[in-house]
Design goal:
395 residues, 2 domains, nine-stranded parallel sheet, 17 helices
């Protein structure tokens, strides 16, 4: 099965940097590092300076030898017509992107090469909604309501006041500005083991939460989350929940057992209304891939996004997507890249997705588990049709 020319809908991306005109050997490979670096100061978070400036030669060598970096170098070498070595790829790439206009054309070329149809972008609140586009395709923006929530937690006089202001802000983002969905980092701030918390309890601990007491902050957050699940229904938008592990590079990164999507079950069944809200588990719950798939199987409102696992998991993506296809409805799986900064990541994700999906589906057809026509239908669903349906007005 050849899926090369099918469209690809990148279901999860971050902003492209229009000034990443030149890459170095180090900056190309470090785009795929989500962990701590090994030079002081260790306490800094994952920003560009820290990630690129605080890795020793030893750690840089380790990152260059990630499977995903080897895949990127291999693909880029084929595309640019050079040797499959990181120095050769960087030189050939930089020769194509000598100014912002050239970088934009290069980005357009990559997106056309893989027929990237559209993208869902984790849109920072610090960026204007009408920021000049760097994506050569339609963009569906995710609204990070937590940025507003944590500011309101400092200034609001009560939980009731916080929720009233947060509701207004979210409604403005969705109805007036056109954001397509909400996003939260539940695992990175707290845990997937959300507890039902009443408004009365949230008011009781609100003062302690304002003072930064962790347990009180968690209680208020959980109470808020219940309200937002219902608000998503009112606004007819999905909620994207960061569930997968993307490294331990900041203090807020959760301990992996706290990221298990199964931990969310007691909360989601605590109110019959909650199961009507469309929830997307971002990053495939990695390493809890099967758990995320089973959640999508068990609950009609839950979906599985594969970003970060695609393309970061590299050679293991075949087994990851095989696990998901074996359990989750094929109408509830999305392919995303987790891209940030440079356009090669979405392009690589599209190529890995098509290659691995073709292999997995060929295997299923060969084992007589699916007819070839069924496999073709599944390919189109995963690569683009599911995402188109979710973000269409009818979806």
């Amino acid at each position: 099965m050849n899926l090369d020319r099918l469209p690809f809908f990148d279901h999860h991306s971050h902003l492209l940097d229009p000034q990443r005109i030149s890459l170095s050997r180090k900056s190309l490979s470090m785009n795929f590092s989500h962990g701590y670096q090994d030079r002081e100061p260790f306490i800094q978070g994952l920003d560009a300076t820290y990630a690129h400036g605080y890795a020793s030669d030893f750690q840089k060598k380790n990152i260059e030898n990630l499977g995903v970096v080897k895949t990127v170098v291999n693909y880029m070498a084929q595309y640019l017509g050079c040797q499959p070595a990181i120095e050769a790829v960087v030189a050939a790439r930089n020769a194509r992107t000598q100014d912002e206009a050239a970088l934009r054309q290069y980005t357009i070329d990559l997106y056309r090469d893989q027929n990237i149809l559209a993208t869902v972008v984790d849109w920072p609140n610090s960026e204007p909604y009408d920021r000049p586009g760097t994506f050569p395709c339609p963009v569906y923006r995710l609204y990070n309501y937590e940025d507003v929530y944590f500011e309101l937690l400092k200034t609001a006089g009560s939980f009731k006041e916080l929720m009233a202001e947060l509701r207004l802000d979210i409604k403005k983002a969705i109805r007036d500005k056109g954001f397509a969905a909400l996003k939260c980092h539940l695992c990175e701030h707290y845990t997937m083991a959300v507890r039902p918390v009443s408004d009365e309890m949230a008011e009781k601990v609100f003062a302690a939460a304002k003072n930064g007491e962790y347990g009180a902050c968690e209680e208020v957050y959980f109470a808020m989350l219940g309200h937002l699940l219902l608000l998503c229904q009112e606004l007819a938008v999905p909620l994207h929940i960061h569930t997968g592990s993307t490294g331990f590079n900041r203090k807020s990164a959760a301990f992996v057992p706290e990221m298990d999507p199964f931990l969310f079950v007691p909360f989601i069944v605590s109110d019959p209304q909650y199961v009507k809200t469309k929830i997307v588990f971002l990053h495939q719950g990695y390493p809890y891939t099967r758990h995320a798939a089973l959640m999508a199987y068990s609950f009609p409102n839950m979906y599985v996004d594969t970003s970060w696992t695609l393309p970061w998991a590299s050679a293991s993506f075949c087994s990851c997507i095989e696990d998901v296809l074996g359990v989750a409805p094929h109408t509830k799986i999305f392919f995303g890249s987790g891209q940030h900064g440079i356009p090669e990541i979405a392009w690589t994700a599209a190529k890995v997705a098509k290659s691995c999906l073709a292999q997995v589906l060929d295997k299923m057809v060969g084992l007589n588990l699916m007819a070839e026509s069924q496999a073709e239908e599944t390919a189109a669903l995963l690569l683009y049709k599911n995402a188109v349906a979710l973000y269409s007005k009818e979806g």
